[in-house]
Amino acid sequence: MSHPTDPADPIGSGSGSAPTEGSTGSVARTAPAGTSGAPDPPPATTSPSTSTRRDLAPSAPAALSPTDLAQLDAQWRAANYLAAGQIYLRGNPLLSEPLRPEHIKPRLLGHWGTSPGLTLVHTHLNRVIKARELDAVCVWGPGHGGPAVLAQSWLDGSYSETYPDVSRDAAGMAELFRQFSFPGGVPSHVAPETPGSLHEGGELGYALTHAYGAAFDNPGLAVACVIGDGEAETGPLAASWHANKFLDPVHDGAVLPILHLNGYKIANPTVLARIPEAELDALLRGYGHEPLYVTGDEPGPVHQAMAAALDRALDRIAAIQHTARADGGGDRPRWPMIVLRTPKGWTGPREVDGVPVEGTWRAHQVPLPAVREDPAHLRQLESWLRSYRPGELFDEDGRPRPEVLAHVPEGNRRLGASPHANGGLLLRDLPIPPLEEYAVDVEAPGRRTHEPTRVLGELLEGVMAATATRRDFRVVGPDETASNRLQALYGATAKAWQAETLPTDEHLARDGRVMEVLSEHLCQGWLEGYLLTGRHGLFASYEAFAHIVDSMVNQHIKWLRTARRLPWRRPVASLNYLLSSHVWRQDHNGFSHQDPGFVDHVLNKSPEVVRVYLPPDTNTLLSVADHALRSRDYVNVIVAGKQPTFDWLTLEEARAHCARGVGVWEWAGTEDGSRAPDVVLACAGDVPTQETLAAAWLLRRHLPDLAVRVVNVVDPARLLPRDAHPHGMPDAEYDAVFTPDRPVIFAYHGYPWLIHRLTYRRTGHEHLHVRGYQEEGTTTTPFDMVVRNDLDRFRLVMDVVDRVPGLGVRAVAVRQAMADARTRHHAWTRRHGTDLPEVADWTWDEAGT
Questions:
Q1: What is the pLDDT of residues 655-700, one digit of tens each?
Q2: For the chain, which domains are there?
Q3: Which cofactor does it need (predicted)?
Q4: What is the pTM of this model?
Q5: DSSP states along 131-191
């Protein structure tokens, strides 16, 4: 398998040859009859061999020969037959006898409507991949297009190589049909089980952003992306059209969007299929594309038109890349795309029971729903299947005939076998510099502060510098890299940008590997596509707005969970989130920016995949980040502040603490080992840790005889039982840390009920009292935020007094002093606009340790 990394080798140029004169992709409107309309004037470009400029004549791809046309049509018919067979048949796969009800599946599930268009695209991609020796993948966007892609994978042999029990013969065809949408079988959409897939095809909106993620830093890769017209109505897909402003023709591969307009969703027409073509053309050109149009419902002309459009598009891509790589840049190009209009449910039943089906929404799922009960439907199904002439396509043993496979690529160039769609095959370990180069000195706990994410940014700069040549690490985020204190990255790379630049701009470059765009959907999709094709990355976001990609991360978690159970899927780099600018330090943005619930969402998902980390200081953040960046097949969520935070642990201590996930900080408590503690102060998160340590300090001063244990939690999944999560603690270990019968006052970063959910099966849960965010937010001082949510040090001391048996009567004065401090705080902030000096100037060192 060729895995080109030399940016000088443009896509579509054959074996490294330069594009010939006439290869620029001027727009050709391909009519249904297959003839080319008058093209727009081609753009001027620079010859790779001279410094003079010349106009390249528009290409005029040769028509398919009769032999090529017959062979491509045979492949397409074979794929359509296999796609329909998956929806309907459980026996008689070659129709070697008349079709009977017992040959039909008991439950008819699947989606026929999009399948013929997908098989058409796949067939023609096969032709150009083989002819041009391309390395390519395809992202299949239309929902539930599984039958089409599975059919083509079976035809090219990649399916049988992946699943030997589904052999490329009659027995294997029967198994291919039986398993589709069947208990214990495979899903109806393109999924991890599908060879060559890197995109979960059930939820719509993310195909194009995944395609661009796959193309970044993949200069020899062509990424085709089929976008269904239903998917094109989603917000994430609408934003994805702007991804071409970030694609560097020098260092990145190419993305070829193929907008498939078949006119309907489940039961309604689609917007882009119904607007005037001039309006559609203006929209797509406004997005920066040069559209090529293929329209029709007669196979012969459509085959000719599709072949011509693909040749024009790939010639244009080759010219763009060759010019950019020869000149080192240039103006942002207009990339080609294809608009394909074919009927929904093409080649299926035109009418059923006197009602139109082909070309209507009725073709969306199962066009003939009653074939087991209605003899007329059964006869119509048999007529439909025989219309593909399976005897011409498969031999007596059910193997595809040579003419069906004439244009199928070989080896790893088959779309079902590309290692780019099984990215773990290409993944290399990330070169992370030693943490000792970045760790902060900690002479004693709580004496100094650092901005954790600023220090992390220095580590990420080191990673970015170490991958400068291999280019397999990116950081994405919605316009927040510097805001989250990660600007050290700009010492190693800039922000990717292909559009206009002004003298006032900073840190923009065509080859940058920091990616900022104000669409969390794009950031998520780019990174997913990048990771699934064998690279590494990190998504940095404001904590509150990670929720925007709740559904996307859910799909990625499902992908990873399924892929882990497929031995042929190799592990990929983990999807790493850094959530900063968090709920407790949104002093200037206020309530709209205060939401710590992304952690709750993620911890609801597959425990074998999800990991959450709440490092309390800078060195623990470095340790957690090092672990996450090295990990495979996880979704890691790291929540860390960007504001000055006390340094509690040395690097060595931080590593040990992170390895445990939960630890007793003996230096912070007052228990002497002679008896069980009177109370446990637990904490998770940087601000809750500070408030807990301050509460412990107050208890040390006011109630010195009280035995206090301080427990810090970095990994909240440790609170779960061992049978609920791989990181869960055995009951005996949990009881040893938290005690089975003493009050536990838990200060938590997010919504308090998450901690109750994680621990409800534990001994002593009735003694657990959790403080956390209670949806009380505004624009206010840092300490006022914790007071408003009853997470402050004074409230924690009051909780201890209230919950330690017998302490309420003895410590009534202490409780009253804590309540007075809260009152004093309220008056001070309203008068001065700042926190109380005794809070703002507090350090642990004052405890005299």
A1: 999 999 999 999 999 998 888 899 999 999 999 999 999 999 999 9
A2: 29-40+56-421 (3.40.50.970), 425-645 (3.40.50.970), 661-847 (3.40.50.920)
A3: thiamine diphosphate
A4: 0.93
A5: HHT-EEEEEE-STT-HHHHHHHHHHHTHHHHH-TTS-SSHHHHHHHHHHBTSTTSB-SS--
